[in-house]
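ugh finaly. both done.
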Amino acid sequence: MRGLSHPEAVRAGRYITVGLVTNVTLYLLFLGLVILGLPPVGVSAACYLLGVALSYLLNRRWSFRSAAGHRHDLPRFLAAYGAGLAVTVLAMSLLAGPLGPALAQLLTIAIAALTIYSALRLLGFGTPKEWRDVDAP
C-alpha cells in the first residue's frame, strides 16, 4: 500500500490538528458554560455551530491553504459536513448497542473525520495548486 504524498500528509496532519484543537477547546467551553448554569442542550448546539465555523476558517486557511473564494469553498465544506453528520448518525445507531455509547462515540468520531476529510478532497475544497510549497508560512 502506498503512503500519502508529502503534501497530502501535511494537509491531513493539519486537518487532524485543527480538529483536535477545536474539539478540545469547545469541550472546555461547553463544560465551563454548563458549570455556570447554562442549559446543556443549548450550549451543545452553540458549541457545535461555533465548531463548524472555526473548522471552516482554520481548515480553509491553514490545512487546505485555499485561494478560492467562499462561494467555491463554503458549499463544498457544508456538503462534506452534511456527509459527516449522516455517517455519524448511522455509525452511532449501528455501534452504540453492541459497543456501548463511549466506545461507539470514539469510533464514530474517527469514522466521521475520515468521511469529512475524504469528502473535502473529493469535492475540491480549497485549491490543490497552492500545495506546491506546503511548508511555506
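ok and the 2nd:
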Amino acid sequence: MQSTKQQLRKEYPQMYSQDLLNNMFRHPYTKIALVMRDLHVSRPTATGYLDKLAESNYLQKEKFGRSNYYINLPLVNCLMDTPNRHHQPENSAPEIKTTPVSKE
C-alpha cells in the first residue's frame, strides 16, 4: 500500500487522495459508485479516476453485467497467498472425495 501511495502521488498528484487509496485497499475491488460515495465526486470524475488507474495497471477493469468492477490484483494476490489457507502442507494436493454413482 505504501509503494502504491508513493507512485500515485508522483504520477497523479491532481487526483491522489488518502480517501482514494483507502477505497482501493478497503476491498479487493471497487466500483464507480463506491468512489463517488467515498470521495464525494461526480460519476464522470469517479469514472475518470478508475479508468486512469486501470490504464496504469493499478487496477484491472472487468465488466460484469452492466457494471464495471475495478480489481486490485496485488491485494487479491496478497489475500490469496496466506499461509495455511487450506490447512494443508504446501506441496500436498487437496483430497477429493467422490461418491460412487449407481448405474441402475
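summary for the 2nd one i guess: Residues 5 and 70 are 17 Å apart (CA to CA).
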